Amino acid sequence: MREHTAACGRSWSAEAAGTTVLVAAILLAAAATRDAGAARFLALGALVAPVVAAVALSPLGRRSGAHLNPAVTLGFWARGRLGRRDAAGYVAAQAFGAAAGAWLAAAALPTSALDAIGGAVTHPAVPPLAALGLEAAMTVVLLAAVFAGWRPLMIVPVLVVLIWLGSPATGASFNPARSAGPALVFGDEHDLWIYLAAPSAAALVVGRLWRRV
User: For the purposes of burial, counting CB atoms within 10 Å of the CB of 1, is it exposed (0-12), middle (13-18) or buried (19 or more)?
Assistant: First the structure.
């Protein structure tokens, strides 16, 4: 039992560290591409997606499985591939890591850059119902690729396209932790419920359906 607990602790710590890297990278990439004009969101995806693959292929990712996203964790739990205690540990680690990543990026970036990107807090540019549907749909695409066994480098173009096409409408989060971290650090939780509810619900549905099929 002690060995299992220690192993879980190491996995959760690795997951927190990996999520910290991801969220910090998202804020830094958003700041770097803020003046890229029409190519901004494509450039953002091209910067962020390889970070996901790099974390997944790193020792951190190999230790934890590199979920980096509560929706992915919930999907694995719904499939019966992860116990309730492990799933709760992963989600808590991701939430902590996301807040840490946002805080670190805020400390590294000048105030003018943070103001220009709004702290990378996600807000929809479409009505809430449409935002819920879009965030859920993007989560379904991501989980389908993950559950199909695609390798991290194969998922990179999927992430690039999702970020590129989804960012103008919703900010292309499809990750409750990614949205929660900046929202909490910068005190802007106005639309956070959308980014918590849509990916989580979609993940549970996809996980259950995948388990049956």
Answer: exposed
Q: Which fold would CATH assign to domain 2-212?
A: Glycerol uptake facilitator protein (1.20.1080)
Domain ranges for the chain: 2-212
Residue 114 and residue 43 in contact, taking contact as beta carbons nearer than 8 Å: no
Name the pTM for this structure.
0.94
Residue 87 near residue 8 (C-beta atoms within 8 A): no
Summarize pLDDT for 30-82 with one digit per residue, the tens. 999 999 999 999 999 999 999 999 999 999 999 999 999 999 999 999 999 99
Q: What is the DSSP letter of 79?
A: T
Distance CA 188, CA 182 (A): 8
User: Residue 109 region, left (φ>0) first, then alpha (ψ -120 to 50), else beta?
Assistant: beta
pLDDT in tens, 76-131: 999 999 999 999 999 999 999 999 999 999 999 999 999 999 999 999 999 999 99
Residue length of the chain: 213
